[in-house]
Amino acid sequence: MKDEEKQKSYRLAEKLISEQNFTAALIAGAVATFLAAAAYGITVAVWDFSYGFTAAGVGIVIGLTMGFLGRGVSTKFAVVAAVYTITGCALGNLFMVIVTLAQANAISSIEVLRNNSLSVLAERSVSHVSLIDLVFWFVAVVAAVFLAKRPLSRSDRLAIGLFELRD
């Protein structure tokens, strides 16, 4: 590769790297995690058959949010998206237990929180996790990791690879 082509490639990589916004991805990912977990919990409590779709949806929402706002090209975006997705699925199970208890006792979710300790609710939410649930969580993590980083063309990936090898 000629020196001129390398410099052009380095400039492209520097541009792509400078466009990243990790702070925006962190904040937006955290908000998306909470909202997706709430939607997950409510959906699973109301329609028991939709567990896998909602778990995958958590990963998709988090990945798209982080990818769109963070415009990330580095691995740290995918790692955070994976952690947020696992957190979102676990929170979704907790919200599902709260909503289910509220429906069963004809009380509000706030009353469920007042009448039960968080450790009891967490224990109940973990007791509902099965092997198939973990498979769907894995699908959600894969979706989040894939979507958390911005799509790059072959030449973009090559430029970033050359830039990283330069050091």
Task: Spell out the key features of this protein.
0% strand; mainly alpha; 8 helices; 167 residues; elongated
Question: Overview of this structure, please?
Answer:
This protein is mostly helical and 167 residues long. It has one domain. It has helices spanning 3-18, 22-46, 51-70, 75-105, 109-115, 118-127, 131-148, 154-166. Helix 2 (22-46) packs parallel to helix 4. The radius of gyration is 20 Å and the shape is elongated.
Shape: elongated
SSE-based structural type = mainly alpha
Give the H and E element order. HHHHHHHH
User: What is the chains' assembly state?
Assistant: single chain
The number of helical runs is 8
Cα end-to-end separation: 17 Å
Sheet of most strands: none
Our estimate of the beta-strand percent is under 5%
Instruction: Please give the number of β-strands.
Output: 0
